[in-house]
Amino acid sequence: MVRTPCCDERGMKKGTWTPEEDRKLIAYVTRYGCWNWRQLPKFAGLSRCGKSCRLRWLNYLRPNIKRGNYTREEEEIIIRLHEKLGNKWSAIAAQLQGRTDNEVKNHWHTNLKKRFMMNKHKDSSVSLAHDDHQEQTEVPKSSEQKTAAADLPNAETTADQIPQTDYLDYAELWSPQPSSSDVSSMTTDIAVAITGADGLVVEDNATSAAMETIYADFSNDFWTEPFLADNFYDPNGLYTPLMEPECLYPLFDGDFLYGSEQHHQGFI
DNA sequence: AAAGGATCCAACCGCATCTCC
DNA sequence: GGGAGATGCGGTTGGATCCTT
């Protein structure tokens, strides 16, 4: 959204991603997987560094990314895990299905931190002893973080299973915004979302329109025309990536990837 | 209505860690 | 074991948008 497009000294484009770039990246990763981020932009026809492609995919384009408002439960998990782990955003995000570390980090800095500190300040007037404990846990030493991370609950862990502290009244930390269960948009199934099926929400920002354009484009040429990377065919098979399941759209599991007419029509 | 400040969040940067040879 | 390259992670930036005056 934000950065002014520019190029670095090697001609690599920087700044905001265009719908066309998104389309290329989605097309490539869904078809070939993210086998090598360094090489990927070259084969995908992108003038971006691999790092930028990876970030864009992981934080924005990959499937099952939940966007929009956070639920009470999600905020509770973030607060509790942040107490326990510190700024281990990836570990925290791992406990929140569909949330990225970047998004969790942003949400913490823009919403939760403020309220957390206010609450902390309020409590400090009540109990200094508790505050001391909090100072320890809020900025854990790296070794302590590692230990805590090793103790992390698995992805199925609910907020109730995470140890609570006795000095926080989480009820005062909740966002005044409506629960995301009411209004949040979720790219649980991007492929379905872009079909415009009844009852489905799309992205609530400018990119949603871009995404629709991207996938609309698919109906025109992506599934019927050879992909750009095919033009770079390497007889040694170098271009052929390992298909990493986590890099694929769930919808693409099974026959759709290979052209199921039924799925194809649903997708478009 | 306009100006200025505050907020939000996508994206970049640099360092840490992992993996492979 | 160690060096090089790839990937992951957290801190930070900065422009768009929202809010207040």
pLDDT averaged over residues: 59
* Run of helices and strands: EEHHHEHHHHHHEHHH
Alpha-beta content class: mainly alpha
- Shape descriptor: elongated
* N-to-C CA distance: 26 Å
Order of strands, main sheet, comes to: 1-2
CA radius of gyration? 22 Å
The amount of helix comes to: 40-55%
- Number of DSSP-assigned strands: 4
Given as residue ranges, the uncertain stretches (5+ residues, pLDDT < 50) are 1-7, 127-210, 218-268
Give the number of domains.
Answer: 2
With helices defined by DSSP (H or I, 4 residues minimum), what is the helix count? Answer: 12
- Beta-strand portion reads under 5%
**Biggest beta sheet summary:** 2 strands, antiparallel
Overview of the structural elements:
Its main location: nucleus. Residues 9-61, 62-112 form the Myb-like domain. Residues 123-161 are annotated as: Disordered. Pfam families: Myb_DNA-binding (PF00249). Residues 123-144 have a biased composition (Basic and acidic residues). The protein is mainly α and 268 residues long. It folds into two domains: 6-65 and 188-267, no CATH class; 68-184, no CATH class. The chain has twelve helices and four strands. The strands form two sheets. It has a two-stranded antiparallel ribbon. A two-stranded antiparallel sheet has the order 3-4. A hairpin with a 5-residue loop joins strand 1 and strand 2 (13-14). The longest helix is centred in the middle third of the chain and has 24 residues, at 101-124. It is elongated and about 55 Å long. The two termini are 26 Å apart. Residues 1-7, 127-210 and 218-268 have low confidence and may be disordered. It binds a DNA duplex (21 and 21 nucleotides) through helix 3 and helix 6.
